[in-house]
Design a protein that fits this description.
Mean pLDDT: 91
Largest sheet: 2 strands, antiparallel
Oligomer: single chain
Distance between the termini: 36 Å
Order of helices and strands: HHHHHHHHHEEHHHHHHHHHHHHHHHH
Helix content: 55-70%
Shape: globular
Number of helices: 25
Number of domains: 1
Number of strands: 2
Strand content: under 5%
Radius of gyration: 24 Å
Strand order of the largest sheet: 1-2
Low-confidence stretches: none
Amino acid sequence: MQNSSEVRSGFTFRALLIAFASIVIISYWTQHSELVIDSPSFNSIHPSIAAFFTVICICLFINPLLTRIHPRISLTQPELLLIYSMLIVAGPIVSIGGVHFLIPTLIAPFYFATPENEYKLLFHKYIPDWFGPKDPRAIKFFYEGSPDGTVPWMLWIKPLLIWAAFLLAVYFVFLCMNAIIRKQWADMEKLTFPLVHLPLEMTKEPGKGRIFNDFFKNHVMWIGFLVPVIIHGLNGTHNYFPNVPDIRFRYISISRYFTEKPWNAMGNTYISLYPCAIGFAYLLTLDVSFSCGFFYIFSRMENIFGAMVNWGDRSSSSLGQFPFIQNQGAGAFLMITMIGIWTGRRHIWDVLRSTFSDKSGIDDSMEPLSYRFAVIGLILGLTFLLGCCVWAGMDIVPAAIFFLLFCMLSIALTRLRVQAGLGCVHGPLTPQDMMVLGAGSVRLGAGNLTILSHFHFMTEEMRGVISIMPSQLEGFRISESARIKAKQLAVAIMIGIAIAIPFGYHAALRKIYQLGGNLLNNWRIHSMPRQPFRTLGTMLRNPRPTDWVGLQFIGVGSIFTLFLAVMRMRFVWWPFHPIGYAVAFTERTIHWIWAPMLIGWGAKTLALKHGGVRTYRKFLPFFLGLILGDFFMGGFWGVIGLSSNSPGYLIFP
């Protein structure tokens, strides 16, 4: 990974102190912005806007000031990147990657229980006492606000400690898997890691006697920076002062022009022109960016085809859910993981040999974790998680299948992030969905289904818990590029996680009990935690058999992904990438980014065609400026929102 004589230490007391302070600030800042005023949604895109904004401010304002005072006291690039790596992992944890989805899930099955839905009769008895408070007053005050604004901490301490240990184990499992796959993906396959390009450029140290580095002195970059500044500046001002005109750059409907059958079956389709997404697309390989847009359009065509042959009529046949978008996506995700394991089978075999033999000959001295530690840690971490499931009342086999699917989807998302730079993928079917499709609800049983429903906080959104794994691997890539000691960065990442969990708990519960969950963000406090228990109640009242058609379309997605991968490996001219297919056959976020992907692809194609690599590099700062400006304005309006309880300005989505 690194030459030991060249690595530098960013693991300094002041770097850790700055990271600690930043995590604490972000923990409380996030609750106001995301729960109270519904914006900016700091962690609906990765890297976390709050985390990125913090590092931008250090690079643009704090470090130049320190350099003017005395160059030797300014933060070095390894220190800045260590701070950045800790913050991009901690950001989601204090939001959708941890507290925003977990905490309401522990309350929702009791607060929303009514005589009509029969939750108490159907599944309350399967919920362990340690999952969360069951005191009626604590549950009522969670959603309706505590009269004196206080949190009943004595009722929360035990559940929070247990769930903290559970989440730490999940994030540690991610760390171990990343340590195992890092060398194969970064050094052997040389994946692009597009999301690390900007932080590396931002944090480069200026030359002697200079305040800013070459990146911040590049005029082309500042032109790109101005585009989102102007757009979000006007639109954000319009949000607070409606008389100010705004610029419409998102949710421009296309489907409104297709009202006749079968074309209206394409569903809600619109164009959004997010500057940061265009910037990220410019960094990708052409086949990846093109495929993301192409296969999204292909999925719309599948909807139209289904309407033409009457497959989309849910009441007419077993194909009523055609084209089974999320099923195809699930198959694609699973196959991407299997292809990755097969491609790296020799490396994985070497890793396993090094675990049980000192004569393996593989050098892991400069890896984030020794391979022996990573493999044993992975086994122990998964064993702990399975033990928690059994303690909660699950059978061992369903628990093992769940975590197998969970890990496969996590690896697939990580592959998408480091190869396609897509930090906002919602995801296909969840592991729970796939288990119900395959086994049916009766075979799984009410007890297993109840515990699995609580795990939806980890799987419903890939921008949540699962997003921590790719963020960790991007940190390791940063450590390699910037010559930082990888083992120190791994320790720093786990420190950041350990800090974020308790402060995220405290900040979220304090705000929720103070104002009442009914007045806060509807998706995070109501819709997301409520949905799995609605589905659970329906399944227990009306048991579901094995869905053979749904399973077949998971197979279709897997086989088609394998076909795309084989064609790409055998033919250089093949323009379609399996990553693009997997991304396009997910929900929600692909609707926001498909058009920017095609725009970024078109810009890069023109640059390479008419000027080659030199022209591509000439315009690269402009597209990095688009990303920088988007993230800066997200943080800027977040700061403005701190002074108000009225709805804030949302830059993404």
